[in-house]
UniProtKB/TrEMBL annotation:
Known role: Catalyzes the third of the four reactions of the long-chain fatty acids elongation cycle. This endoplasmic reticulum-bound enzymatic process, allows the addition of two carbons to the chain of long- and very long-chain fatty acids/VLCFAs per cycle. This enzyme catalyzes the dehydration of the 3-hydroxyacyl-CoA intermediate into trans-2,3-enoyl-CoA, within each cycle of fatty acid elongation. Thereby, it participates to the production of VLCFAs of different chain lengths that are involved in multiple biological processes as precursors of membrane lipids and lipid mediators.
Principal EC category: lyase
A biological-process GO annotation: sphingolipid biosynthetic process
Species of provenance: Gallus gallus
Name this polypeptide is given: Very-long-chain (3R)-3-hydroxyacyl-CoA dehydratase
Reactions mediated catalytically: a very-long-chain (3R)-3-hydroxyacyl-CoA = a very-long-chain (2E)-enoyl-CoA + H2O; (3R)-hydroxyhexadecanoyl-CoA = (2E)-hexadecenoyl-CoA + H2O
GO terms assigned for molecular function: 3-hydroxyacyl-CoA dehydratase activity; enzyme binding; very-long-chain (3R)-3-hydroxyacyl-CoA dehydratase activity
Family of the protein in this entry: Belongs to the very long-chain fatty acids dehydratase HACD family.
Membrane topology term: Multi-pass membrane protein
Transmembrane segment boundaries: 54-77, 89-114, 134-154
Amino acid sequence: MSSFFVPTVYRIWAEGTQTAENSHHASVGWGGCCIKNCVHSLEFIVQVQTEDSVLLFVVAWTITEIIRYSFYTFSLLNHLPYLIKWARYTLFIILYPMGVSGELLTIYAALPFVRQSGLYSISLPNKYNFSFDYYTFLILVMISYIPLFPQLYFHMLRQRRKVLSHTEEHKKSE
């Protein structure tokens, strides 16, 4: 079993349940999961594993997840330090573009190897009368970043403004 399988399945479940309450953001959450899951599947392309872009997205998403789950943990304990809240709603400004850039560069670097090997592709004829071209799928995933990333990024900026301004107002009233 892949080392990325369990965290990816958990992330899909967690983000899906978090966004299911708000139907406007449900598709955004699931879209983000699918894109990250796609990048995780690239672990089977050995030629791409040494790319600098892999380090870029791994560092960005690792820091992001540490901050995110620290935020969730302290929130559940009803003792959320301001530093954790600030980090959750501020560091994404650098980490999200860094992670997305790493993902896109990694997918781009994988394209020649996917095309050459036919990785995950199914060609006709077969008993299911179904074909799938993973190379084309990856290109479509890369294109999907164009509408999805700004939507997610600006949503987080709005959340940052709402959450941190509320915290500042609360501090002033004390």
